[in-house]
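Encode chain A's predicted structure.
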Amino acid sequence: MTDLFAAFKACLPTQWPVFDGAVVKADGAPYGPDELPKPPWLFVRFPAPDVLDRALSGDVHGLLVEGEVLCYHSDAFAVRALADRTVAALDGSRLVVPGWQFGRVAVDSVDGPGQDRDVKFAGGSHPQVVGIDFSFVASKEAP
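Encoded structure for chain A:
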């Protein structure tokens, strides 16, 4: 799963921080309530894949991955531009992990912008967020 996430992350634009699971500092320490990173940033929700196919031995041979990239910025115009760049980088890209073949990443929907009321910057303002739903399939290469 780590290789899969690393390969997915490599498809995203590289000029912005990408967080997975939690927005934390480079050293892994959590941000305090009033010290979130300056936008823009991307947050990836990358759940465990659905198994599509197993060998008789039980080994996984096919996966369906569905997740979401959340784009955060300070205002609606900026977050739309961030989302456009993220969609352009992601849609149609193909992951590379040794031993696996991947279908192209599909952007299934784009939702937003809107305020994320669960996230607050110092001073009390809320960032704008756009959600990008994605999916792709993977199959294990024959030995």
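The longest helix spans residues 76-90.
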